[in-house]
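Q: What does the assembled structure look like for these inputs?
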Amino acid sequence: MIGFVAALLSASLLQVGSPSAASPPPGEPPPQEGAPAGVLTRSPSLQQFIPAPFPPEAEAAGASGSVLLSIVIGEDGAVTAVKVLDPGPHPSFAPAAEAAVRQFRFLPAEIDGKPAPVEIEYRYDFVLKRAAPAAPAELPVLLSGRVIERGTRTPIAGAAIEAGGVTAETDAAGRFALRGLAPGEVTVRVVSPEHEPLTMQETIAADRVVEVEYRLTRRHYDPYEAVVRGERPRREVSVKALATEEVRTLPGTQGDVIKVVQNLPGVARSPFGVGLLVVRGSDPADSAVFFDGVPIPLVFHFGGITSVVSSDVIEGLDFYPGNFGARLGRATGGAVEIRSREPRDRFHGLAQVDVYDGRAQVEGPLGGGRLVLSVRRSWVDAVLRAALPKVAPDAADDLRIAPRYYDYQARYSRPLGRGTLSLMAFGADDKLEFVRTDDTPGRPSFFLGTLFHRGAARWRAAFGDVQSDLVVYGGRDSFDVLQGTAFGVLSEVWSLGVRETARWRLSDALTLEGGIDSALRRLEYSLYSARPGGSGGSVDALIGEKATGTWLAPGAWIEAEWQPRPDLRLVGGLRADYDSRLETARGWLDPRATLFWDPRPGTTLSAAAGLFGKAPEPGELTALFGNPALVPPRAAHYAIGLRQALPWGSSVEATGFYKSLWRLVTSVDRDAAGLDAPLLSSAGRGEAIGAELLLRKDLARGLFGWLSYTWSRALRRDDPSQPSWPRWHLFDLDQTHNLTLVVSYRLPGEWIVGTRVRAVSGNPYTPFIGHFNDTDTTRYQCVASPDVLSRRVGPFFQADARVDKRWVFARWMFSMYVDVQNATQHENAEFRVPSYDCTQQVSIPGLPVFPSLGLRAEW
Amino acid sequence: MHRPRALPPLLAGLLLAACGVDAPKQYRVPDVRILAIRDHVDPTSLADADQDQQVTIEALVANPRGRAPITIEWYGCLPWIPSQGAPQPACLDGQRLAAPDTLPSAPGVFALGGGAVAPGASATSLVTLDLSTIGPSVSAAFDDLIAGATWLPQRDASLPPYDPTLRCRLYAEVPVVAIARAEGVTEVAVKRVRLSPTLRVRGTALEGIYVPNANPAIGSVNRDPTAPGGCAAAPPLAAPLPAGEITLCATATAASPETFNQCQVDGSLLGVQETLEFQWYVSGGTIDRASFDGNVVGDDVRLTPPAGPFTVWAILRDGRGGADWRAVDLPAP
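A:
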């Protein structure tokens, strides 16, 4: 027996980007704490393997085994730090493995397309083998074949094959050939860094070649197993990055990455059945959502069931609760940037069904590029059709179209010039309709339809030191509401927009960014409504408005990032916007600045201030239901932050913010202002103050999660015509305390278990102080207290649980999850509805315990 | 354009209906309540009055517990002329109606009278509104209405802006408040008495466009209709009642549904027939088909009677301020 180093290795990406979380060896500089989030766009791969000598004392003892290491790979591919996690069965293994690993060279990982340091878990196997003479090259090939990955059928390159003392390595196509094997029974061992080792028995014949196909099981089947907090310099005091594979198995979110945003600090809990993004006390319409740089008009499908973009085409997203950079505009609340992922270069597909919807997706190479196409449709309508006759027969009789939605996303990417061209199309369509037998034709009792389509071309390229990101998009939005003969809105918006972002690195200390963000829009709408002021219920006069208008909304911005000292960084920007549809105050300027100071490695202090503006919504500028003279709402954001890296891939982030809002669009009380007064004015005021805390554990060793807490207070002041004026009152979705705990743990055997626990203050409501019977309407009228929104419904508590299991077969994979919302069956009051005489307020409970099942097949 | 924030209440209503949340039902009348108010021009059935006419206003008061005494106070307010920037009348001001003792002293409020209500599970209170006593206010309101609905070549700033849809709404309103008081109970109800300048517009382009409203009339209140005769052929709702569930139904007289003009967005006129609607109340028992707040409307509804005597009220409304009602006292089934 002599020692033979099998050089078996395995690596699983442990946790990237928080190199500071790993303890560097003495004498080595600590890895830089990176602030921002980014997403891993390429895993590191081993380029140069250095075999470790088999320790003689271990050989003498006849020992075999593995050493588990944590290693940090620098952005140049060198190993910068090694830590022994498990020394294995013999004390001599760990020093030998550590010495060898330090000499490895990797193709570095990439974060957002740029090389970046990462930390991975690496297993080095020592196998004691009987020595065999080296096989002469001229000997015949008696065993050959291919090594592919189970489930995905991806060829595995660089896998080591060993049989009867003969070794070989797979090529890029996963193929290998072993020469000089002795005929007879032989044990074949196949190892690959990211896969479980495979051992097979083969019978070798002297007169023929045995052709085999080996399928290795991947250690983890998530293509992205970590989130990077590292190299892309953060430009905001608070930015939260989510990677799809990191969060798709969180309980209560149905695998919806965008819904996960609702569990982050600064975001109020959206009531059950209502999909809202309420950020730091701002109205949902005041926050902007971008999909690959293209603004989208709505985030969630009907009832907030799910977002309008399938998570299977999303690489990740960045969420900015405030003080975002100058490149994002036309929002006074927060911003969400959703990034689609590149299609894969082999044919793949998936099909998924759950209680809400079903989806299908295909992708693969096409015409020199790569295409992904995803389609989803709900079946809530079918579920309601079956269930409503039992629980609400009246509603079932009238329901013509139950809540029905679909969405689609397509992306085609291919190299073009000095960069990559991506062609994208995406959209969503929601409909709901109630029709009674006595409805006037074309005037259903209730109809709601929302729709948007977008087509976009994006070209990202580098020109020397300048990086360019150009997006040209066009689209159509439609929003229709009909409520019998008494009310109707039919509207369409056509958009043509362009966004260009140019980044120029002038020196190590100074980087400039600038760009344009402009759109040409055309609005067509028609409105009708019963003329206000009538009594008795019959509609004796209709008023309406029909108009078509085209307007230009150009915008431009510039931002400089200056780092005068290694520990000090200043980001300052200016954004200019214009909206030709406005009658007055058509343009506005938004200066913004953020200062970062790193007093010591791993610690970042930051402060930011800036102005933000947006145009009123198109519907708010109509003469009939709005006010054409509205001016742009404005906001000033102030924030201070502390971010501290912690061991074990953890970090804590604390942020304090204050926001002042003015020129808010607010309702006018026509009883006081007169029936001819506009319904809306720009006289609203608001402010919000709060503190946010996020304790986060990045995905490592299977554990991932965060604890989020927000304390906030958001206030409003109404139009002077309102009885409440000039007093300030709570914002209608103000939530003083908002605590969320999210934990997900990956167990061996492709199991994932997780829980989400939320405890949130109840929403404010306005109490009633009396009532009277309006005999002309047959209804009691509740008299609201002048103390607007002065009381709260009871606090909200909900615990959700989820279990995921994946089965990996030779050519495909199958997953199943059970997601139980409100697992503790806690009754939460979501809304309060007055009794007929207003003497009682009846609480409408939220979601009861609600288990849902999802099935998913991937190939 | 963004989703309407009104959607949550709609969903809440559906949820309430679906979840069967236990809340007081509007159709069930356990104590003193003013169920309806109607008016008519003496001695006609017209609900819409003209200048200087006498109007009788009548309230339907339910008193299933037989409380005594019950008094009714009546107040009226001057017609509202919103185009002249006048504030909303106190009779429609929720804050004052929630504290009715403050109403008599409010500007523009005048007392109409009142008194004790006759005993019984169902009674009425009558009061007379003499429009000649507020003649100048009514005249000013009519001037405003006619000016707003009439195109004039030279409109000065003192006139309301011309609006052709006002031709179909050529009426002013005198809000009237009834306050019922019994021991420990105060009930407030509001009715808008319509005033239309029929004589003033005679011979003008506005003549005949607004159709003054007449009160509808209940033909019969019956039970357990069957095909083919329907409700009209069904037996009257009277003792004795069969055991178990019964179906309540009612009919309106043939002359009840009137045709009125609806002004369209483009200014054209559309003849529309009134939609007559029956509303039901009971002092006991359960009605199976109620909206989420317990309001019951419909030509026929199913009732599970209570064990003891009870009263059924059927109220017919035409959607333009006109009403009629019947009260039926019934013994235990």
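The mean pLDDT of chain A is 84.
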